[in-house]
């Protein structure tokens, strides 16, 4: 299926919306998929989200959506802020890019990239930074919809930015969105249900493979499902900056989130992280080499 969707703009980064979310959604879940590995980008063009891939000898590397602006950006993770290098590598033709900051990270485990696409109905945990929202109802007989009403229920994106998580399941997969291969999740009126919202580019979508949490997808856009068909835009009459969880008499019509499937691009993502420079490795391990030379008289090759 080929889709055209509303991509989250860089002018604001509004995090994962959670239906009837609580304070528990604003800290790591008991079964933590990778809370500490998700950071926030702050930039003149607006904030976004990024996921920690790991260190090489000189820098920490992250994954975000390629439509995010990194000019003048900093990244906050683990209680620290780092300068973002604006040069980045787009991954294939997908809405993904790899970038680095000016330091390595300590004490934070990188995510594990998934090698397979989650099945339909597979359980997901979605995690992002930014606004939640205020629950509202709409009168859908008017165009645009007016509030309050009895025709639909959902959220207006109004709350301050906050990092939080919610859950969902795979509605559809292997969809073509622009030049990316994506999966879709639907926003049901169920406690804890997650939905992407404006600017939530780079939000993490985790799936548990056996006992291992893996990064299965990266949030990039929203749309709707209507009459069993997926679209890349809001409902006719739906106000902007809103998400729809239920429409009276149409229980399967609601907002959806589109996320780029990691498995389709795993090799390209890993290839975009440069190999450590040999000299940097030598300098990084010089204390170990000095220690070894003091213990052994025979010449040693570099580790």
The unreliable regions are 9-14, 278-303
Number of distinct beta strands = 22
Q: Which structural class should the secondary elements be placed in?
A: mainly beta
Number of domains: 2
Distance between the termini: 50 Å
Give the CATH class of the largest domain.
Mainly Beta
CATH topology of the largest domain: Thrombin, subunit H
The whole-number mean of residue pLDDT values reads 86
Count, helices: 3
Percent in strands: 35-45%
- What portion of residues is helical? under 10%
Instruction: Provide the CATH superfamily of the largest domain.
Output: Trypsin-like serine proteases
- Characterize the largest beta sheet: strand count, sense, and whether it forms a barrel: 10 strands, mixed
Task: Give me the oligomer status.
Answer: single chain
Query: So, CATH architecture of the largest domain?
Result: Beta Barrel
Sum up the overall morphology in one term: globular
The ordered string of helix (H) and strand (E) elements is EEEEEEEEEEEEEEEEEEEEEEHHH
Spatial extent as radius of gyration: 21 Å
Please, could you describe this protein's structure?
There is one protein chain. By secondary structure, this protein is mostly beta strands. The protein folds into two domains: 2-28 and 112-266, Beta Barrel (Thrombin, subunit H), CATH 2.40.10.10; 55-110 and 268-295, no CATH class. Helix content is 8%, strand content 37%. It has three helices and 22 strands. The protein has helices at 266-271, 278-284, 286-295; strands spanning 2-3, 6-7, 17-18, 38-42, 48-55, 60-64, 74-77, 80-83, 89-90, 97-100, 123-128, 134-138, 152-156, 164-169, 172-177, 180-186, 194-195, 204-209, 212-226, 229-231, 242-247, 254-261. Strands 1, 2, 11, 14, 15, 16, 18, 19, 20 and 22 form a ten-stranded mixed beta sheet that branches. A seven-stranded antiparallel beta sheet has the order 8-7-4-5-6-10-9, with no helix packed on it. A hairpin with a 4-residue loop joins strand 5 (48-55) and strand 6. The radius of gyration is 21 Å and the shape is globular. The N and C termini lie far apart (50 Å).
């Amino acid at each position: 299926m080929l889709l055209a969707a509303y991509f989250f703009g860089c002018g604001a980064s509004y995090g994962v919306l959670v239906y009837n979310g609580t304070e528990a959604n604003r800290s790591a879940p008991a079964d933590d998929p990778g809370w500490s590995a998700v950071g926030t980008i702050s930039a003149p063009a607006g904030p976004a989200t990024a996921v920690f891939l790991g260190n090489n000898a000189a820098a920490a590397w992250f994954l975000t959506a390629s439509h995010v602006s990194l000019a003048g950006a900093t990244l906050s993770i683990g209680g620290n802020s780092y300068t973002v290098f604006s040069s980045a590598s787009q991954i294939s033709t997908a809405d993904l890019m790899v970038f680095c900051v000016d330091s390595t990270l300590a004490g934070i485990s990188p995510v594990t990239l998934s090698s397979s696409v989650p099945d339909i109905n597979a359980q997901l945990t979605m995690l992002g930074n930014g606004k939640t929202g205020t629950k509202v109802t709409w009168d859908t007989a008017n165009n645009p919809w007016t509030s309050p009403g009895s025709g639909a229920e959902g959220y207006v994106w109004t709350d301050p930015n906050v990092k939080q998580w919610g859950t969902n399941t795979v509605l559809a997969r292997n969809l073509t969105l622009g030049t990316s291969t994506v999966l879709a999740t639907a926003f049901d009126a169920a406690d804890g249900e997650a939905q992407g919202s404006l600017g939530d580019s780079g939000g993490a979508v985790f799936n548990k493979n056996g006992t291992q949490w893996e990064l299965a997808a990266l949030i990039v856009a929203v749309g709707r499902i209507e009459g069993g068909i997926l679209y890349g835009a809001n409902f006719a009459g739906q106000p902007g900056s809103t998400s729809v969880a239920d429409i009276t008499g149409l229980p399967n019509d609601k907002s959806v989130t589109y996320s780029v499937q990691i498995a389709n691009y795993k090799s390209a993502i890993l290839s975009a992280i440069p190999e450590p420079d040999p000299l940097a490795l030598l300098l990084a391990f010089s204390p170990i080499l000095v220690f070894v030379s003091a213990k052994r008289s025979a010449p040693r090759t570099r580790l």
